[in-house]
Specification:
Elements (H helix, E strand, L loop, with lengths): L14 H14 L15 H24 L4 H33 L4 H27 L7 H29 L7
Helix pairs in contact: 1-3, 1-4, 2-3, 2-5, 3-4, 4-5
Length: 178
């Protein structure tokens, strides 16, 4: 089993996550006064939710067309597609969604901290997902890899399902015109 799964939900920030968060936070403001750099986009939440549905579809195909069919070439292609689609979603979410929220909620320190915690948690999940995609992007599998893939796939699926439901129910509702 992948060793990185055990630390997926730890509360302390890794150095990479902290560096990434600092870069995004710096880009959120054009001056100390917090002049807006990202405008409200009324289509953003639907686009993010559509990304979630697309990612779920690809993720399910990894299982049905790859793993179940023992078609590791197809699984490898789907893992590559999933990884690139996932990363594009994260960029959109980090740059357009989180930065906007940090701009508009700059005066609400409690909500801002919740948003930063969400972002940090997502960065850790993202690292885990990308490592998972890289780990299993092979066209031939040993029996051990087949066994480990099944366990890791289920854990990744559970984490992503929880996260997307939480985002759509609790986080996306904060995205409102300023």
């Amino acid at each position: 089993m992948l060793s990185f799964l055990s630390g997926m939900f730890r509360s302390d920030k890794s150095r990479d996550s902290a560096d990434l968060e600092e870069r995004y936070t710096r880009s959120a403001y054009s001056s100390a006064k917090g002049n807006r750099t990202i405008s409200y986009d009324p289509t953003l939440i639907k686009a993010l939710e559509d990304d979630h549905r697309n990612l779920v579809g690809i993720f399910q195909r990894i299982w049905s067309e790859g793993y179940e069919q023992q078609n590791y070439r197809q699984m490898s292609q789907l893992l590559t597609q999933f990884k690139s689609t996932f990363q594009a979603h994260l960029i959109k979410e980090n740059v357009r969604f989180y930065v906007y929220l940090e701009q508009t909620l700059a005066g609400d320190s409690h909500t801002l901290q919740v948003i930063k915690d969400f972002r940090s948690d997502m960065n850790e999940i993202a690292n885990t997902v990308v490592q998972f995609c890289k780990q299993y992007n092979h066209e031939a599998f040993t029996p051990e890899m087949v066994r480990d893939f099944k366990m890791d796939y289920q854990k990744i699926g559970e984490a992503l399902t929880r996260r997307t439901a939480l985002e759509e129910k609790e986080l996306y509702v904060l995205y409102q015109p300023a």
